[in-house]
């Protein structure tokens, strides 16, 4: 018995950790740099695209919150898809989600390496990428409380930066800001609110959807807190104002202060916030934005490694991954094997940086393009079936999806329509096709696993009703 490996998570995340993680979950480099591409595409009407994408995330998070309050689990929506739809569904969405975050870590290491090399060129970019990778692996080897602390401070820097930007931008909108040449609302309508037509807004909406993935991480992390039900309810309710304030609010200020066709918006060496800060007359804007982006990519890497390792842990508990991935440290309770395996793509990216082969990594990244939509679709279908079962059992849920089942059906229809539009329109056709091929391969593997009956279900509750009642009382 003394040699039996430990397979239990210890937890330790505090309420303030989860609060800051939920706030920063949707704030990444896509906001600070990548949003310029969407602004150039749709013009000021890109605000509508961000509102539409944000609304989809809000509804998906409400559905996920309903299930997570009833059954907190480190596998989150993967576990719910397993229980509500079938083992193949939980297997597929769990491995797709792991692939997304594991692959994204390599890209974040690349971006961090490029920024640090630009500041201190005496070390090659791949050396900095390796340093960031190893450092954050060490963080994730420690107790989850240490991960929460690192993520809290990483997130705080991003949040403070956005709040300061919102204040400065708001002052400029009312002609109070004393520096720069950006004042008032002129660029919102001076060249037309929708200069490239409604089709451009739809295409931008499809691109915007990718920026929001990460909000669901808090339902994974909440399972390692003292009161998962309460924390999930609080953070899920706050997702509305987070998206409105940080994404829609900041993009609104940018399109008011900067012409949508400014060449620097689509220049990868500048980015959205850099252009806006230049317009506000802020000195050293490039350095400031690079520091914020570096913090964001380190935060994203940190969260990605945490999330990927917990997804492997959950898959292993359900028999859908090798049992070694659920082994945890006796003192830390961290699934250190899952952490190491999840970091494999980061080391691959470092090797490609050193050998100038990152263009190959770009092809791999295309297969993650629509995983966010697949995740939201799985959440909606799982919530639909799980609620129907709970209603049939007469279970009262403490936290519910609005206007069930009509809003759930609406989300399912919108996601399917978005995927079809992406194929027909063409801009994101490769992303849809590559992700679909990857999903088909994993679905096949999941069906084979289900057919062969591989694995056990030691973590699954005896029935949904009992689990729901237990979590309702604890929440």
From TrEMBL:
This is GABA permease. GO terms for cellular component: membrane. Gene3D superfamilies: Amino acid/polyamine transporter I. One of its GO terms (biological process) is transmembrane transport. Keywords: Membrane, Transmembrane, Transmembrane helix, Transport. Residues 17-448 form the Amino acid permease/ SLC12A domain. The chain crosses the membrane at residues 18-35, 41-64, 85-105, 125-144, 156-180, 200-218, 239-260, 287-313, 334-354, 360-381, 402-420, 432-451. It is found in: Membrane. Its main location: membrane. The gene is gabP. The keyword Transmembrane applies. InterPro entries: AA-permease/SLC12A_dom. It comes from Achromobacter deleyi. It is a multi-pass membrane protein. It comes from the Bacteria.
């Amino acid at each position: 018995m003394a040699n039996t490996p430990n397979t239990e998570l210890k937890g330790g995340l505090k309420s303030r950790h989860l609060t800051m993680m939920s706030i920063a979950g949707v704030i990444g480099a896509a906001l600070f740099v990548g949003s310029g591409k969407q602004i150039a595409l749709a013009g000021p009407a890109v605000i509508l695209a961000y509102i539409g994408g944000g609304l989809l995330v809000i509804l998906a998070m409400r559905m996920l919150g309903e299930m997570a309050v009833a059954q907190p689990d480190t596998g989150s929506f993967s576990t719910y898809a397993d229980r509500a739809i079938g083992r193949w569904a939980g297997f597929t969405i769990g491995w797709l989600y792991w692939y997304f975050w594991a692959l994204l870590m390599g890209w974040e290491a690349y971006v961090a390496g490029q920024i640090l090399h630009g500041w201190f060129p005496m070390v090659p970019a791949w050396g900095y990428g390796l340093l960031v990778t190893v450092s954050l692996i060490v963080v994730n080897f420690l107790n989850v409380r240490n991960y929460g602390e690192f993520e809290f401070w990483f997130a705080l820097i991003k949040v403070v930066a956005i709040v300061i930007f919102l204040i400065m931008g708001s002052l400029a909108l009312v002609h109070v800001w004393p520096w720069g040449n950006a004042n008032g609302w002129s660029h919102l309508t001076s060249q037309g609110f929708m200069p490239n037509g409604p089709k451009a807004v739809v295409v931008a909406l499809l691109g915007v959807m990718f920026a929001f993935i990460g909000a669901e991480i808090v339902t994974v992390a909440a399972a390692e807190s003292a009161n998962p039900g309460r924390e999930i309810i609080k953070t899920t309710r706050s997702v509305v104002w987070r998206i409105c304030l940080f994404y829609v609010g900041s993009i609104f200020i940018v399109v008011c202060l900067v012409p949508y066709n400014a060449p620097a918006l689509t220049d990868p060496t500048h980015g959205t916030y850099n252009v806006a800060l230049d317009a506000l007359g802020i000195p050293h804007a490039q350095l400031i934005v690079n520091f914020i982006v570096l913090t964001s990519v380190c935060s994203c890497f940190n969260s990605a490694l945490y999330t990927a390792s917990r997804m492997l842990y959950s898959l292993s508990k359900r028999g859908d991954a090798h049992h070694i991935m659920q082994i945890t440290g006796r003192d830390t309770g961290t699934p250190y094997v899952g952490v190491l395996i999840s970091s494999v793509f980061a080391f691959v990216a470092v090797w490609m940086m050193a050998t100038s082969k990152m263009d190959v990594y770009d092809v791999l990244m295309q297969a993650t393009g629509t995983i966010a939509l697949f995740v939201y679709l799985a959440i909606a279908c799982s919530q639909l079936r799980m609620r129907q079962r709970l209603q049939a059992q007469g279970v009262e849920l403490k936290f519910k999806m609005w206007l069930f089942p009509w809003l759930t059906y609406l989300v399912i229809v919108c996601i399917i329509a978005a995927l079809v539009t992406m194929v027909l329109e063409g801009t994101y056709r490769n992303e849809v096709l590559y992700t679909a091929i990857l999903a088909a391969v994993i679905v096949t593997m999941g069906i084979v696993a289900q057919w062969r009956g591989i694995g056990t279900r030691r973590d699954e509750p005896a029935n949904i009703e009992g689990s729901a009642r237990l979590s309702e009382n604890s929440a």
